[in-house]
Amino acid sequence: MLKTPMYQFEKTTPNIFASFKDNYELPKEFKGPLKEYDFIVVGAGSAGSVLASRLSEGKQASVLLLEAGQGEAILTGVPILAPMLQRTNYVWPYLMEYQPGVCMGMENGRCFWPRGKAVGGTSVVNYMIYTRGFKEDWDRIAAKGNYGWSYDDVIPYYIKSERAKLRGLNKSPWHGKDGELSVEDVPFRSKLSKAFMDAAKLLGQRQVDYNSPDSFGSSYIQATISKGIRASSARAFLHNNKKRKNLHILTNSRVTRIIIDPYTKTAIGVEFQREGKMYNITAKKEVILSAGPIESPHLLMLSGIGPREHLQSMGINVIQDLRVGETLYDHISFPALAFTLNATRLTLVERKLATLDNVVQYTQYGDGPMSSLAGVETLGYIKTELSDEPGDYPDIELLGSCASLASDEGDVVARGIRIADWLYNDVYRPIENVESFTILFMLLHPKSKGHLKLKSKNPFEQPNLYGNYLTHPKDVATMIAAIRYILRLVDTPPYQKYGATLHTKKFPNCMSYQFNSDAYWECAIRTVTSTLHHQIATCKMGPPQDPEAVVDPELRVYGIKKLRVIDSGVIPQTIVAHTNAPAIMIGEKGADLIKRTWGLL
Predict the structure, then answer these.
(1) Is 533 one of the catalytic residues?
(2) What digits encode the pLDDT tens for the residues 59-97?
(3) Rounded to an integer, what is the distance from CA 18 to the centroid of its chain?
(4) Origin, by domain of life (predicted)?
């Protein structure tokens, strides 16, 4: 056990959401971590939780799971509270570096990139949408030399984890029944969810199971919830296994570097800080980074694995020259459309939600408005006229909802994504007393490519994050096309019977453009440029001939023995998915890859 004078330790802040949290403690006979484990897993997020659970099965191996955050609390399990979690210490409050012309309507003109900091990672703070990616996504990844990652290869791992209870899909061969991860229909559905489905049908969309190979169409959302309660990766894979003697889970443990022998290029263990002390712990078999698409590359670079010139400029000894952090893709959204209604009791209005009846309905039966995914109810895939893809392969995901930025009077969603007061007060406050909703969308395949770099070699300082949003003109054009499609969708009878009308108040910074012109919508998109927390490819997987690859198709870091990255940061290209389910699948598959290596299967 070592003390270090080099860096100030992090300060934690009080958090009302931490009340009655799930505690993870060492077995009573252990007063501290062992000096050595078979496997050390860094990060108890969506991938790390399942990975540690699988590696410790059958008591064949000892596993240390290190998590910088804490256990989830009772309130984090309530789906409707998801937006509030973005401003608690259940997230890493990352900010993208300032980029002119995007996030202009956010606080200080900066894009906010919160990532989960909890046992369960981002699955504790996300919107619980369960999507796996299209068959074409995984087959294309495999075709580029990533053996073992085709759709046929990965679908068994999705099914293995899943315990599905979905209406009309009881006999589906594409869903699991016996896994630990609960996937269910959202108990609460507003009338606007049916309006979305009916309107999509009028525009030629089929209702599909988007988690089957036939996935191009629209659907009610399949969610990682269990009887109305969030089903995080921790709740699914760790909670019932945390008393295993061979699985030690340490919360509030901040890993500062991977210990690597520079001569043999072998990962030996990790250094981490916990409760004011520094520890060096050894891994007999492997160190696995599951710290997510920002912290995993951050730790690699701090440990001497990354772009040579960049590391040298930071005074870090280079052990392996790899293009860590040089590729970054993210899904961005535009949640700022608002449609008003001439009817009542159709949307989620905050001041009408906090009633005793709704609380009782939720606590006793797990349904009612509090079981809503903060208003998000339906999903649809479309292919705009700008797509040059063959067949039914979408470039936009639509998300239907029964709330808008005005529904909570600016206290929750707008604050959660850090919309500036000058924008909210001017555009949305005037419609707080009118029922309103939005349909947002996700740009599935951005051409704009970001990256990340170290800010310094202080492990407690966040890396510099460069999204490079909307730097490719096709991204802007595709997002405008998505807005045009949404306007057509809402102009159909299923919505018009409720008097759905576009709120036409101009953004104050876009006054010089004619409302509803392409130039206006581009200005609006650049004003509210919102991440959906799906950063990928920062530790890109690829075959040896891929110059950008950081890990091989078995997730081993190139040039370093006994070190793997197993999280969503290895996904090499954009996929048609919210990344929580793919991260869990990667954890499942990664566990099998490791077990096969060490004869543990």
Answers:
(1) no
(2) 999 999 999 999 999 999 999 999 999 999 999 999 999
(3) 21
(4) Eukaryota
Question: Annotated binding residues for FAD, as ranges?
Answer: 122, 255
Q: Which amino acid is at 565?
A: V
- Asked whether 42 and 289 are in contact (CB, 8 A), the reply is yes
From the number of C-beta atoms within 10 Å of its C-beta (0-12, 13-18, 19+), residue 282 rates as middle
Q: Residue 413: its pLDDT value, please?
A: 93
Beta bridge partners of 182: 163
Q: By C-alpha distance, which of 151, 153, 149, 126 is closest to 211? A: 151
Give first-to-last CA distance, the chain, whole Å. 34
Q: Give the span between the Cα atoms of 196 and 194, in whole angstroms.
A: 5
Helices 580-597 and 151-161: crossing angle in degrees, nearest 10, is 100
Active site residue 298: no
pLDDT in tens, 108-134: 999 999 999 999 999 999 999 999 999
Phi, psi of 109 (to 5 degrees): 65, 25
CA–CA separation, 346 vs 342, rounded Å?
Answer: 10
Asked if residue 194 lies in contact with residue 377, where contact means CB atoms within 8 angstroms, the answer is no
Nearest to 123 by CA among 288, 237, 294: 237
Question: What is the 8-class DSSP label of residue 481?
Answer: H
Q: What pLDDT is stored for residue 440 in this prediction?
A: 97
Q: How many helices (H) and strands (E) does the chain have?
A: 15, 27
- Smallest Cα–Cα separation from 402: which of 361, 476, 447, 346? 346
Residues carrying CATH 3.50.50.60, the chain: 1-10+22-86+112-181+229-326+450-461+536-600
* Coil, strand or helix at 225: strand
How far apart are alpha carbons 549 and 326 in whole angstroms?
10
Structure-token pair, residue 325:
């952090």
The three state secondary structure string of 407-448 is CCCCCCHHHHCCECHHHHHHHCHHHCCCCEECEEEEECCCCC
Whole-number Å distance between alpha carbons of 510 and 134? 37
- pLDDT per residue as tens digits for the range 38-60: 999 999 999 999 999 999 999 99
Tell me the pTM: 0.95
Name the catalytic one among 239, 248, 310, 534: 534
The pair of three-digit structure tokens given for residue 116, joined into one six-digit string? 């989960």
Q: What is the CATH number of domain 1-10+22-86+112-181+229-326+450-461+536-600?
A: 3.50.50.60
Range 501-506 average pLDDT: 98
| Main-chain phi, psi angles of 51, to 5 degrees | -60, -50
The residue type at 460:
F
Sign of the CA dihedral with 582 first, then 584, 589, and 594 last: positive
**Residue 18, pLDDT score:** 60
Closest CA to 588 of 64, 212, 155: 155
In terms of CATH, what superfamily is 187-220+329-448+470-528?
Glucose Oxidase, domain 3 (3.30.560.10)
The boundaries of every CATH 3.30.560.10 domain in the chain are 187-220+329-448+470-528
